[in-house]
Design goal:
two-stranded parallel sheet, 2 domains, 302 residues, Rossmann fold, alpha/beta, seven-stranded parallel sheet, binds uridine-diphosphate-N-acetylgalactosamine, single chain, UDP-galactose 4-epimerase, domain 1
Length: 302
Amino acid sequence: LSNHHILVTGGAGFIGSHLTDHLIPDNDVVVLDDFSSGDRSKVPDDATIVDADIRDTEAVSRALEDVDTVFHQAALVSVAASIDAPTRSHAINVDGTLAVLEGAREVDARVVLASSAAIYGHPETVPVPESAPKTPASPYGLEKLTIDHYARLYHERYGLEAVPLRYFNVYGPGQRGGDYSGVIDIFLEQARADAPITVHGDGSQTRDFVHVEDVVRANVLAATTDAVGRAYNVGTGSSVTVVELAELIRDATDSSSEIVHTGARDGDIDQSRADLSRSRNTLGYEPTVALRDGIADLVAHR
Ligand code: UD2
Protein backbone atom coordinates (compact mmCIF):
# COMPACT_ATOMS: atom_id res chain seq x y z
CA LEU A 1 0.00 0.00 0.00
CA SER A 2 1.50 3.38 -0.92
CA ASN A 3 0.52 7.04 -1.32
CA HIS A 4 -2.59 6.65 0.80
CA HIS A 5 -3.95 8.88 3.55
CA ILE A 6 -4.58 6.43 6.34
CA LEU A 7 -6.18 6.45 9.77
CA VAL A 8 -5.26 3.67 12.18
CA THR A 9 -7.54 3.66 15.23
CA GLY A 10 -5.90 1.94 18.16
CA GLY A 11 -2.62 2.65 16.39
CA ALA A 12 -0.68 2.58 19.66
CA GLY A 13 -2.01 -0.87 20.56
CA PHE A 14 -0.74 -4.33 19.73
CA ILE A 15 -2.07 -4.91 16.21
CA GLY A 16 -2.48 -1.21 15.38
CA SER A 17 1.16 -0.39 16.08
CA HIS A 18 2.37 -3.21 13.83
CA LEU A 19 0.07 -1.90 11.09
CA THR A 20 1.33 1.65 11.57
CA ASP A 21 4.97 0.51 11.40
CA HIS A 22 4.22 -1.30 8.15
CA LEU A 23 2.37 1.62 6.55
CA ILE A 24 4.40 4.63 7.64
CA PRO A 25 7.26 4.45 5.10
CA ASP A 26 4.99 4.83 2.06
CA ASN A 27 1.84 6.55 3.34
CA ASP A 28 0.53 9.45 5.42
CA VAL A 29 -0.63 7.92 8.67
CA VAL A 30 -2.81 9.35 11.44
CA VAL A 31 -3.03 7.37 14.67
CA LEU A 32 -6.10 7.82 16.86
CA ASP A 33 -5.67 6.33 20.32
CA ASP A 34 -6.74 7.21 23.86
CA PHE A 35 -3.61 5.50 25.28
CA SER A 36 -5.70 3.64 27.85
CA SER A 37 -3.79 0.49 26.97
CA GLY A 38 -1.77 1.68 23.97
CA ASP A 39 1.78 2.91 24.28
CA ARG A 40 2.81 6.32 22.92
CA SER A 41 6.41 5.20 22.39
CA LYS A 42 5.17 2.61 19.88
CA VAL A 43 3.90 5.31 17.50
CA PRO A 44 6.52 6.32 14.92
CA ASP A 45 7.57 9.99 14.86
CA ASP A 46 6.24 10.45 11.33
CA ALA A 47 2.68 9.55 12.31
CA THR A 48 0.21 12.25 13.36
CA ILE A 49 -1.31 11.49 16.75
CA VAL A 50 -4.90 12.26 17.68
CA ASP A 51 -5.23 11.58 21.39
CA ALA A 52 -8.94 10.84 21.77
CA ASP A 53 -11.59 8.36 22.72
CA ILE A 54 -13.02 6.47 19.75
CA ARG A 55 -16.54 7.60 20.80
CA ASP A 56 -15.58 11.27 20.40
CA THR A 57 -17.25 11.91 17.03
CA GLU A 58 -15.64 15.33 16.60
CA ALA A 59 -12.15 13.97 17.15
CA VAL A 60 -12.88 11.07 14.80
CA SER A 61 -14.06 13.48 12.08
CA ARG A 62 -10.94 15.59 12.58
CA ALA A 63 -8.71 12.51 12.32
CA LEU A 64 -10.52 11.51 9.10
CA GLU A 65 -9.79 14.70 7.19
CA ASP A 66 -8.35 13.75 3.75
CA VAL A 67 -8.25 10.09 4.79
CA ASP A 68 -9.06 7.45 2.15
CA THR A 69 -8.43 4.28 4.16
CA VAL A 70 -9.20 3.42 7.79
CA PHE A 71 -7.88 0.44 9.73
CA HIS A 72 -10.18 0.30 12.75
CA GLN A 73 -8.35 -1.57 15.50
CA ALA A 74 -9.38 0.42 18.57
CA ALA A 75 -11.39 -1.71 20.99
CA LEU A 76 -11.67 -3.02 24.51
CA VAL A 77 -10.16 -6.40 23.68
CA SER A 78 -10.75 -8.27 26.91
CA VAL A 79 -13.49 -10.90 26.89
CA ALA A 80 -13.39 -10.96 30.70
CA ALA A 81 -13.84 -7.19 30.90
CA SER A 82 -16.90 -7.47 28.66
CA ILE A 83 -18.41 -10.04 31.00
CA ASP A 84 -17.70 -7.87 34.07
CA ALA A 85 -18.94 -4.61 32.54
CA PRO A 86 -20.93 -5.17 29.34
CA THR A 87 -22.30 -1.61 29.16
CA ARG A 88 -18.85 -0.04 29.02
CA SER A 89 -17.52 -2.67 26.61
CA HIS A 90 -20.51 -2.18 24.31
CA ALA A 91 -20.07 1.59 24.31
CA ILE A 92 -16.43 1.41 23.27
CA ASN A 93 -16.69 -1.50 20.84
CA VAL A 94 -20.05 -0.79 19.20
CA ASP A 95 -20.70 2.96 19.61
CA GLY A 96 -17.01 3.62 18.92
CA THR A 97 -17.18 1.64 15.68
CA LEU A 98 -20.35 3.47 14.63
CA ALA A 99 -18.52 6.76 15.12
CA VAL A 100 -15.80 5.50 12.77
CA LEU A 101 -18.28 4.20 10.17
CA GLU A 102 -20.26 7.45 10.23
CA GLY A 103 -17.11 9.53 9.90
CA ALA A 104 -15.87 7.34 7.06
CA ARG A 105 -19.22 7.71 5.29
CA GLU A 106 -18.76 11.49 5.25
CA VAL A 107 -15.38 11.28 3.52
CA ASP A 108 -16.13 8.08 1.58
CA ALA A 109 -13.14 6.21 2.99
CA ARG A 110 -12.63 2.47 2.93
CA VAL A 111 -12.84 0.87 6.37
CA VAL A 112 -11.09 -2.37 7.31
CA LEU A 113 -12.40 -3.42 10.74
CA ALA A 114 -11.22 -5.81 13.42
CA SER A 115 -13.92 -8.44 13.89
CA SER A 116 -13.23 -11.64 15.80
CA ALA A 117 -13.58 -15.41 15.87
CA ALA A 118 -15.45 -14.71 19.12
CA ILE A 119 -18.58 -14.18 16.98
CA TYR A 120 -18.75 -17.95 16.32
CA GLY A 121 -19.05 -18.77 20.05
CA HIS A 122 -18.57 -22.51 20.51
CA PRO A 123 -18.26 -23.75 16.91
CA GLU A 124 -20.14 -26.94 16.08
CA THR A 125 -17.36 -28.09 13.75
CA VAL A 126 -13.86 -26.96 12.81
CA PRO A 127 -12.46 -25.54 10.62
CA VAL A 128 -15.00 -22.69 10.87
CA PRO A 129 -16.09 -21.06 7.59
CA GLU A 130 -17.46 -17.50 7.57
CA SER A 131 -20.96 -18.89 7.04
CA ALA A 132 -20.92 -20.90 10.30
CA PRO A 133 -23.68 -20.22 12.87
CA LYS A 134 -23.00 -17.19 15.07
CA THR A 135 -23.84 -17.66 18.74
CA PRO A 136 -21.34 -15.52 20.65
CA ALA A 137 -20.54 -16.72 24.17
CA SER A 138 -19.63 -13.30 25.60
CA PRO A 139 -20.72 -9.66 25.32
CA TYR A 140 -17.42 -9.08 23.51
CA GLY A 141 -18.37 -11.65 20.87
CA LEU A 142 -21.80 -10.12 20.43
CA GLU A 143 -20.28 -6.63 20.11
CA LYS A 144 -17.92 -7.89 17.39
CA LEU A 145 -20.81 -9.65 15.64
CA THR A 146 -22.74 -6.38 15.72
CA ILE A 147 -19.95 -4.37 14.11
CA ASP A 148 -19.34 -7.16 11.60
CA HIS A 149 -23.03 -6.76 10.58
CA TYR A 150 -22.78 -2.96 10.59
CA ALA A 151 -19.91 -3.19 8.14
CA ARG A 152 -22.01 -5.28 5.77
CA LEU A 153 -25.00 -3.00 6.24
CA TYR A 154 -22.99 0.17 5.61
CA HIS A 155 -21.85 -1.37 2.37
CA GLU A 156 -25.36 -2.42 1.32
CA ARG A 157 -27.19 0.75 2.46
CA TYR A 158 -24.60 3.46 1.93
CA GLY A 159 -22.12 1.92 -0.50
CA LEU A 160 -19.31 2.24 2.04
CA GLU A 161 -16.33 0.01 1.24
CA ALA A 162 -16.21 -1.84 4.57
CA VAL A 163 -14.35 -5.10 5.15
CA PRO A 164 -14.50 -6.92 8.51
CA LEU A 165 -11.62 -9.27 9.30
CA ARG A 166 -12.40 -12.03 11.80
CA TYR A 167 -9.19 -12.48 13.74
CA PHE A 168 -8.47 -15.82 15.41
CA ASN A 169 -5.82 -15.90 18.20
CA VAL A 170 -3.34 -13.20 17.25
CA TYR A 171 0.13 -13.23 18.84
CA GLY A 172 3.50 -11.59 18.32
CA PRO A 173 5.87 -8.98 19.74
CA GLY A 174 4.35 -6.32 21.97
CA GLN A 175 1.12 -8.11 22.82
CA ARG A 176 1.04 -7.34 26.53
CA GLY A 177 -1.06 -4.23 27.09
CA GLY A 178 -2.42 -3.31 30.48
CA ASP A 179 -3.54 -6.37 32.38
CA TYR A 180 -4.74 -8.28 29.34
CA SER A 181 -2.60 -10.77 27.51
CA GLY A 182 -2.88 -13.82 25.36
CA VAL A 183 -1.89 -17.31 26.46
CA ILE A 184 1.37 -17.31 24.45
CA ASP A 185 2.63 -14.26 26.29
CA ILE A 186 1.61 -15.71 29.65
CA PHE A 187 3.25 -19.10 28.99
CA LEU A 188 6.46 -17.43 27.73
CA GLU A 189 6.76 -15.40 30.88
CA GLN A 190 6.17 -18.44 33.05
CA ALA A 191 8.65 -20.56 31.09
CA ARG A 192 11.37 -17.90 31.23
CA ALA A 193 11.01 -17.72 35.00
CA ASP A 194 11.03 -21.54 35.26
CA ALA A 195 7.68 -21.08 36.99
CA PRO A 196 4.79 -23.52 36.54
CA ILE A 197 3.01 -23.20 33.19
CA THR A 198 -0.69 -22.90 34.05
CA VAL A 199 -2.88 -24.87 31.65
CA HIS A 200 -6.57 -24.22 32.24
CA GLY A 201 -8.52 -27.48 32.41
CA ASP A 202 -7.16 -30.57 30.68
CA GLY A 203 -5.55 -28.46 27.93
CA SER A 204 -7.20 -30.37 25.10
CA GLN A 205 -8.88 -27.18 23.85
CA THR A 206 -7.49 -26.04 20.50
CA ARG A 207 -6.65 -22.60 19.09
CA ASP A 208 -5.56 -21.23 15.73
CA PHE A 209 -2.65 -18.88 16.53
CA VAL A 210 -1.90 -16.34 13.81
CA HIS A 211 1.19 -14.12 13.84
CA VAL A 212 0.58 -10.38 13.83
CA GLU A 213 2.67 -9.99 10.66
CA ASP A 214 0.15 -12.18 8.82
CA VAL A 215 -2.67 -10.10 10.31
CA VAL A 216 -1.00 -6.97 8.89
CA ARG A 217 -0.82 -8.64 5.47
CA ALA A 218 -4.52 -9.53 5.63
CA ASN A 219 -5.36 -5.91 6.45
CA VAL A 220 -3.39 -4.62 3.47
CA LEU A 221 -5.16 -7.10 1.17
CA ALA A 222 -8.53 -6.03 2.57
CA ALA A 223 -7.65 -2.39 1.86
CA THR A 224 -7.37 -3.08 -1.86
CA THR A 225 -9.76 -5.93 -2.61
CA ASP A 226 -12.76 -5.40 -4.89
CA ALA A 227 -14.76 -7.88 -2.80
CA VAL A 228 -15.92 -5.48 -0.09
CA GLY A 229 -18.97 -5.72 2.17
CA ARG A 230 -18.18 -9.23 3.32
CA ALA A 231 -16.13 -10.72 6.14
CA TYR A 232 -12.96 -12.80 6.01
CA ASN A 233 -11.38 -15.18 8.51
CA VAL A 234 -7.81 -14.39 9.48
CA GLY A 235 -6.04 -17.36 11.05
CA THR A 236 -3.66 -20.02 9.80
CA GLY A 237 -6.05 -22.92 9.17
CA SER A 238 -4.02 -25.01 11.66
CA SER A 239 -4.51 -25.42 15.38
CA VAL A 240 -2.71 -26.80 18.41
CA THR A 241 -4.00 -27.88 21.81
CA VAL A 242 -3.12 -25.72 24.78
CA VAL A 243 -0.97 -28.56 26.17
CA GLU A 244 0.92 -28.78 22.87
CA LEU A 245 1.43 -25.03 23.06
CA ALA A 246 2.80 -25.31 26.61
CA GLU A 247 5.27 -27.96 25.45
CA LEU A 248 6.30 -25.94 22.40
CA ILE A 249 7.03 -22.93 24.57
CA ARG A 250 8.86 -24.93 27.21
CA ASP A 251 11.09 -26.47 24.51
CA ALA A 252 11.71 -23.15 22.76
CA THR A 253 12.85 -21.52 26.00
CA ASP A 254 14.85 -24.52 27.31
CA SER A 255 12.82 -24.12 30.45
CA SER A 256 12.50 -26.55 33.32
CA SER A 257 8.96 -25.36 34.06
CA GLU A 258 6.42 -27.91 35.12
CA ILE A 259 3.13 -27.96 33.22
CA VAL A 260 0.34 -27.77 35.79
CA HIS A 261 -3.42 -27.95 35.30
CA THR A 262 -5.64 -25.39 36.98
CA GLY A 263 -9.44 -25.24 36.94
CA ALA A 264 -11.04 -24.91 33.51
CA ARG A 265 -11.85 -21.31 32.58
CA ASP A 266 -15.54 -20.53 32.69
CA GLY A 267 -17.02 -20.42 29.19
CA ASP A 268 -13.73 -21.41 27.54
CA ILE A 269 -14.15 -22.34 23.88
CA ASP A 270 -13.26 -25.95 23.15
CA GLN A 271 -12.26 -25.98 19.47
CA SER A 272 -11.21 -23.13 17.23
CA ARG A 273 -9.66 -23.24 13.78
CA ALA A 274 -10.22 -21.00 10.77
CA ASP A 275 -11.42 -22.20 7.40
CA LEU A 276 -9.40 -19.99 5.07
CA SER A 277 -11.06 -20.92 1.77
CA ARG A 278 -12.72 -17.53 1.26
CA SER A 279 -9.72 -15.48 2.44
CA ARG A 280 -7.41 -17.48 0.18
CA ASN A 281 -9.62 -17.48 -2.88
CA THR A 282 -10.95 -13.94 -2.68
CA LEU A 283 -8.33 -11.89 -0.85
CA GLY A 284 -5.33 -13.95 -1.88
CA TYR A 285 -4.42 -14.23 1.82
CA GLU A 286 -1.84 -16.86 2.72
CA PRO A 287 -0.41 -17.14 6.25
CA THR A 288 3.40 -17.23 6.21
CA VAL A 289 4.54 -17.62 9.83
CA ALA A 290 4.43 -21.13 11.31
CA LEU A 291 3.68 -21.19 15.04
CA ARG A 292 7.03 -22.79 15.87
CA ASP A 293 8.89 -20.01 14.02
CA GLY A 294 6.76 -17.27 15.52
CA ILE A 295 7.51 -18.55 19.01
CA ALA A 296 11.23 -18.95 18.27
CA ASP A 297 11.25 -15.36 17.10
CA LEU A 298 9.56 -14.15 20.30
CA VAL A 299 12.13 -16.06 22.36
CA ALA A 300 15.05 -14.60 20.40
CA HIS A 301 13.94 -10.96 20.48
CA ARG A 302 13.30 -9.65 23.91
C1 UD2 B 1 -9.32 -15.24 22.10
C2 UD2 B 1 -9.04 -13.76 21.95
C3 UD2 B 1 -10.23 -12.97 22.35
C4 UD2 B 1 -11.49 -13.44 21.64
C5 UD2 B 1 -11.64 -14.94 21.83
C6 UD2 B 1 -12.79 -15.47 21.01
C7 UD2 B 1 -6.65 -13.47 22.34
C8 UD2 B 1 -5.60 -13.03 23.30
N1 UD2 B 1 -7.93 -13.41 22.80
O1 UD2 B 1 -9.54 -15.57 23.44
O2 UD2 B 1 -9.99 -11.60 22.07
O3 UD2 B 1 -11.39 -13.12 20.27
O4 UD2 B 1 -10.47 -15.62 21.39
O5 UD2 B 1 -13.15 -16.73 21.47
O6 UD2 B 1 -6.37 -13.84 21.23
N2 UD2 B 1 -5.07 -20.45 28.85
C9 UD2 B 1 -4.42 -21.30 29.74
N3 UD2 B 1 -3.63 -20.75 30.71
C10 UD2 B 1 -3.46 -19.39 30.84
C11 UD2 B 1 -4.13 -18.54 29.92
C12 UD2 B 1 -4.93 -19.10 28.94
O7 UD2 B 1 -4.54 -22.53 29.66
O8 UD2 B 1 -2.73 -18.98 31.76
C13 UD2 B 1 -5.92 -21.06 27.81
C14 UD2 B 1 -7.34 -20.54 27.83
O9 UD2 B 1 -8.11 -21.21 28.79
C15 UD2 B 1 -7.76 -20.82 26.40
C16 UD2 B 1 -6.47 -20.65 25.59
O10 UD2 B 1 -5.41 -20.72 26.55
O11 UD2 B 1 -8.22 -22.13 26.27
C17 UD2 B 1 -6.38 -19.31 24.88
O12 UD2 B 1 -6.65 -18.27 25.82
P1 UD2 B 1 -6.49 -16.72 25.45
O13 UD2 B 1 -6.94 -15.96 26.63
O14 UD2 B 1 -5.13 -16.44 24.93
O15 UD2 B 1 -7.45 -16.51 24.21
P2 UD2 B 1 -8.99 -16.95 23.98
O16 UD2 B 1 -8.97 -17.99 22.93
O17 UD2 B 1 -9.69 -17.20 25.23
